Amino acid sequence: MKRFMQVILGLFAAGAVVAPLFAGSLPPAPAGVQVSHEYGIEFVRVQAQNVKPFQASGSLGNVNRPVGGGSWDFGLARTELTQGQWIQMPNAFDDVAVPADQPWSYTLESMLRGDGWVGFGMYSDGFGSQGRLAFQVTELGAALPVDGIGWIGSVMYSNWLHNDRAPTIDSLLNGAYDLRQWNHLDPQTWLTVTRSADARFWVPTYDEWAVGSFYDPNRFGPGEEGWWPYLNRLTRLPIPGPPGMGETSAGWNTEPSPGDSLYIPVGSYPDLQSPWGLLDTSGSRYEGIEDAYEFDRAFAGTRNGLTSFPEDEALLERLGWVGQGNMVRGAPIGLRIATSNVPGPIGLSLVVLGAACFIKTRTRQ
Prior knowledge:
Blueprint: H1 2-14, E1 35-38, E2 41-51, E3 54-56, E4 65-67, E5 70-77, H2 83-86, H3 88-92, H4 105-112, E6 122-127, E7 133-137, H5 139-142, H6 150-162, H7 169-173, H8 187-192, E8 201-202, H9 206-214, E9 215-216, E10 226-227, E11 286-292, E12 297-300, H10 310-315, E13 323-324, E14 333-334, E15 338-339, H11 350-361
Parallel strand pairs: 11-14
Antiparallel strand pairs: 1-2, 2-5, 3-4, 5-15, 6-7, 8-15, 9-10, 11-12, 12-13
């Protein structure tokens, strides 16, 4: 582990890994993409009209329905939520008591005290008045994607942003999602919670995630729309490897220390982006989505390192495939949050959006 961290820090010094992350910036998005910032999160505007859906069924996907059809205008975070962004929420509640004897009391209290999601680089410098740890994070740790928050942590974080990060229990339980009747002991309530129509921040659906990750209004040339079959505008599986050498941390064999691929900041593969500028859809962490799949909440994309089922993992690099297991906190699943706060005039030229990146991506076969 020590040797690996020396290598990673050496790559940062050499510029092979995205050093600007430590200065709070990300690599530029493709030309024409609108970028905005909310609460320290960088979003891109995903705007597409009359998208022809992709038929995800059989050998073309386990979603088993058309994906992504219609018109879209929303924002998606360019990266997964980082540990530095996440800990702002539990720290805001250091002195806020969680009411007892409510169906959500146990899960809310355990989430605020750090159960399941404390990661590399996090530490405590004391306790709040409620006996919970006050979390801090190192500079490198702050740039790592958070995981282990589960679906419930993702929707509570969405509620918190929706409510302008107010340090109240109601700001976690209502807003984008109404969790006031949610019960951690009742499996049915895990799947019946839906997004409010006026949500300002939310967990994306698979359709939203797929449009942001695979759809390109200039896939076959200016104004010629289409879907990329693989993440990051590829027509094949990405090449695993460290930043500056490979194209993804997914499938990167770091034996004899298989956890080493965990310690890669978001945005460390800057040349691998979706047509809209999303980073790390391949590798990093699985990304929770709003959809239910086989009695569970689903996730999309791939995660870092080797997995026990490489063939199944390879499918998740492709359009139309999702996994299940996001209802369990502690799993290697993160969050790429969506927003309705998309500044700028309606009618952004979709031809201009992809024209600049069309020439570049044509060679990435």
